[in-house]
Write a sequence for this structure.
C-alpha cells in the first residue's frame, strides 16, 4: 500500500466521522463547526494544488486548537495565514 493512500484513509476517517458526529445536536458546536469546515477547505486545497496529504497531519490538529483558542473571524485569519505560510514554504 502506498503511504499517500494510507494517509488519505486516516484523514478521511477522521473528517467523515467528525462530520457525521456533527449531525447530532450535542456535538454541533461552534468549535467543531470551525474545525471541520477548515478540514474540508484544506482537503480541497490539497487536492487542487496537488501537494502531499501529509500536510493535513499538521493542519488538522492546528485547526482544532485554533478553533478552541480563537473561534470565529480571528481564528479564520490565523488559519488563512498558517495555510498561506505553509504553501509559501512548500513551493
Amino acid at each position: 500500500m502506498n503511504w499517500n493512500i494510507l494517509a488519505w484513509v486516516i484523514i478521511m476517517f477522521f473528517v467523515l466521522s467528525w462530520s457525521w458526529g456533527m449531525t447530532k445536536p450535542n456535538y454541533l458546536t461552534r468549535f467543531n463547526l470551525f474545525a471541520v469546515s477548515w478540514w474540508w477547505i484544506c482537503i480541497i486545497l490539497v487536492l487542487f494544488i496537488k501537494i502531499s496529504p501529509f500536510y493535513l497531519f499538521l493542519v488538522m490538529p492546528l485547526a482544532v486548537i485554533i478553533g478552541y483558542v480563537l473561534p470565529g473571524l480571528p481564528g479564520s485569519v490565523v488559519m488563512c495565514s498558517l495555510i498561506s505560510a505553509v504553501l509559501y514554504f512548500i513551493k
About this structure: The longest helix spans residues 30-49. The radius of gyration is 13 Å.
